[in-house]
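To close the section, here is one more complete example, presented without commentary so you can practise reading it yourself. The ligand is S-adenosylmethionine.
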Amino acid sequence: MTLRGAKPAGIDDEGRAALAVREMFDSIAPRYDLLNHLLSSNVDRLWWWRAARRFKDVLADPDAAILDVCCGTGDMTMALLRRRPSGARPILAIDFARAMLSRGARKFGARGAVAVEADALHLPLPTASLDLIATAFGFRNLANYEAGLREFHRALKPGGQLGILEFSTPSGFIGKIYSFYFLRVLPAVGRMICGKEGPYNYLPNSVGNFPRPAEMLELMRAAGYEECSWQPYTFGIAGLYTATRGAVA
Ligand SMILES: C[S@@+](CC[C@H](N)C(=O)[O-])C[C@H]1O[C@@H](n2cnc3c(N)ncnc32)[C@H](O)[C@@H]1O
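Output:
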């Protein structure tokens, strides 16, 4: 069976892929923030901020039901929270790696978000209950992309919005420089700081394995989304996929 989802080295079934991803994030959680900011020269902060700005209208509605899924250590959640009015309904922040989530909860717990340990492919939420699902650098790690899109579609209200912030592969000259950094420098620095071989080899592999924007947009349309688009960030190193769940269920 061919997996359309994360493919940690040597694994070819969805259950084992999800387990390997969860264990990997639990193992790197203590160094995750440090490495993230170092390896992206803090550009990641700008990406979270831009993604949150894209949803400023729904975030400004105090009653809007908002989910940050694959929230990890909570930086996307924090960017979303900055645009919430005081007294707003808490944001739900879901992740299945306890060590990542507990670090996130320390950041956002007192600021208006609630941490829930759960699998993105089986959200513990009623159908048609959310106004916005945002996810940053997590979607690529799901064991089945189509299943993830379907599950998010189920949980969104008609007219609800989806935002998926993900890495991409820039083309041209920038692409060549970036590939060298991403395939050579980043795994070496990651290995040095986190003391493990696997996770920072997995990162470039997982980006290489992820659908290109045109293909991802096709997957989104096939899962029933409307107004699907992709906005590249920083020469296309990352980008934001956006879509809405159509008004008809
Ligand atoms: C690269 S981190 C991103 C964390 C955070 N959103 C950020 O922008 O820094 C990916 C996160 O996705 C989570 N994740 C991957 N697959 C998941 C799944 N099926 N269900 C819940 N969380 C998942 C991992 O545990 C990890 O914390």
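Once you have examined the tokens, check your reading against these statements. The domain at 14-171+200-245 is CATH 3.40.50.150 (Rossmann fold). The pocket of S-adenosylmethionine is lined by residues 18, 21-22, 25, 70-73, 75-76, 95-97, 100, 119-121, 136-138, 141-142 (CB under 6 Å).
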